[in-house]
Task: structure prediction
Amino acid sequence: MVAQASPRVAVAGNPNTGKTSLFNRLTGANARVGNYPGVTVERESGTWRLGGRDVEVIDVPGTYSLAARSAEEQVAVRALFGLDGDPRPHLVLLVVDATQLVRNLYLAVQLAEAELPFVIALNLADVARAQGILPDPARVSAAFGVPCVPVSAHTGEGLPDLARVVGEALAKPPRPRVSLSYPAPLVADAARLEAFAAASSPGEARALALWHLLSVDDTDELIDIPDAVRREVLAIRAGAAGRDIDGEIVGTRYDWLVAQDFGVGKRVEGPALSDRVDRVLLHPASGGLVFLLVMAVLFQALFSWSEPAIGAIETAFAWVGDAVAGALPSGIASDLLVDGVINGVGSVVVFLPQIMLLFFLLGFLEDSGYMARVAFLVDRAMRSIGLHGRAFVPMLSGYACAVPAIMATRTLERRRDRLLTMMVVPLMSCSARLPVYTLVVATVFAPGATWLGLDARVAVMVAMYLFTTGMALVAAGVLGHTLLKGPRVPLLLELPPYRMPRLATVLRQMWMRAKTFLTEAGTTIMAVTVVLWALLYFPRDVQLSRDYDMLRAGASDEVAAQLSAEESAERLAQSYGGRMGKAIEPIIEPLGYDWKLGVGVVGAFAAREVFVATMGVIYGIGDDADEASEPLRERMRAERRPDGSPLWTPAVGASLMVFFALSAQCLSTLAVVRRESGSWRWAAFLFAYMTALAWVGAFVAYRVVGALAA
Amino acid sequence: MPRMSTLASLAVGESARIVAVGGERGYRRRLLELGFLPGTVVRLRGVAPMGDPLDVDIGGCRFSLRRAEAEAVRVASPALELAAAK
Result:
């Protein structure tokens, strides 16, 4: 007996049709996120309880057409035809925006031509009805030969009907029928390609032939196109001088659609609400103001509002660590568990507040329609660095933290744009660099110093933000014209009507992002954190200069703590990480650093702000020193080179800040880049180019500031 | 003869009928598939604050495209068509 596999339904439709909302309504809280094979396009699937059995629902990426130019655009057609590793879906649920009927039904024509069994959900039926333009479902159904149900993912209207119709369609698949009269030369062209198709019906063979004619040319980036088909398409196109094959195909489909009577009434409304809103939001003055306000709120949220949650997570993990340390006998096992594992989990979870806040706000901006306006408003400025308007929000988020910012690049459509944004976002001065700047500035500048009339400390901070922004823009320009040079990508951005976002949908998308981060990037971050801990912890059986245990035995608490701090400093110096710090001394010596700073740089790989704690340990202050710790600053100011000159000069401070500004000292960023780009290669490239840039920048800063100060 | 111009040279608020769509093939195909077909009426609704991109209405849908691409969409103003017919 063969086990009955659950039926599979693919949900397809144009972008901005409420497709995801409907998918969420149908599948409830049990969706899974994966990737389509070979491309970094997310594949969401879930289970729909339908008439007492489970139906697997797959959310196909939103698309205006099945025709494709790149492997990513090809995902939709491959998913619908069952070419992406999964079997062909039993049914397609086509979500159509009832207020934009003809443009949305263009996709229905393609499904019908391919004879794929499908059902039409006329979404936004409530909005269309209010505007007096709700089509007659019976006529839509008759035109395509498939069932058609008006629904509203927003209000829930029509969903029981949809469930019934889908249940019936699974039992007895609808057989779509459309008959389009393509021009005779085009029919002859298609016939030449139909011979190559491994199709289950003549209609499907014709549909595939038209797909190839529309999609294939000598610059496409499609996958799995047989050479023979490609050659034939190119031959046909070469022989069609004077004809417009694309125009013939698309024009015939639109002619057919326009000739149908879908029973659409006359629009009753005056100027739509969206138009009135846009008169304010796209106005050069008021629109600019609202834009700045929205971006300020977004930035403030990431930068400050996430702070209490981050603090609470850090406190909670410290508390758990202390509790575990107290309960276990001290030793390697306890240190591994507390400083390695618990600290490692903490270093992953600590990203959640910013990730969840960013995706919550992004969800609102996206679903309300404002995100498209943001892209519209800033496109001209972003174009000067080779990106388009949608890259703005990820770039801005980078000032708070590169990790959520890189995750946000998935709102960009083209892989090249995503990669370029990922490669420059880590240059933005994120909040983890602030403790390092603060410590260094406070150490090397006297409190009263001024620079151009500003407090020197403030001036340096402002300069660092301007510097990193400038570097990110330059890097985008350079990478965009060299390594990530691609065909110029023109903008074609839909400005959808404003709509009230559905909280449940936004929250769910936010939770999916958080879950994906925890399971995919989080595991890597956690593992590398443990490795880094081990590097700074082992070996344990080293020769210490004094017998600290004996000395501590009779000492007062204060003296014992001091002795422990000194022991930690000595152990760190002899650890593998400490030895690495010494080993890289010749490399970092031209930057003005000694081996202790080398250890700090090695340790900071876990996260930039760890530099401060590492400095605390290595200078014998203890690992609980923070950037505001006056004893640590005093100790750093007292540090001398072998020749007796102070180590922490303004030149070294400038060099170190520039190094931290430009280097990829953040394994979490690298782990997320790996996950979002789909390969370690881009993470490795990011690390290599930023480290090289950081070294050169720090060298220049050391020399220039050194010369100025002399 | 009706006077021809391009989508990029319309005044804000002005409508015109598409005569031909040109440009790079992949982009052109997308425009066609979104309904930018010869004979269809387009309207320039607005322009972004920095002069680019454009905000275009076609059949009740709004799309934003840049000037460079809009210059490849040739249009004839219906008013001019009427004048030429007289």
User: Anything to note?
Assistant: Residues 184-259 of chain A form one domain. The radius of gyration of chain A is 30 Å. The first strand of chain A starts at residue 8 and ends at 13. Chain A touches chain B through 39 residues (CB under 8 Å).
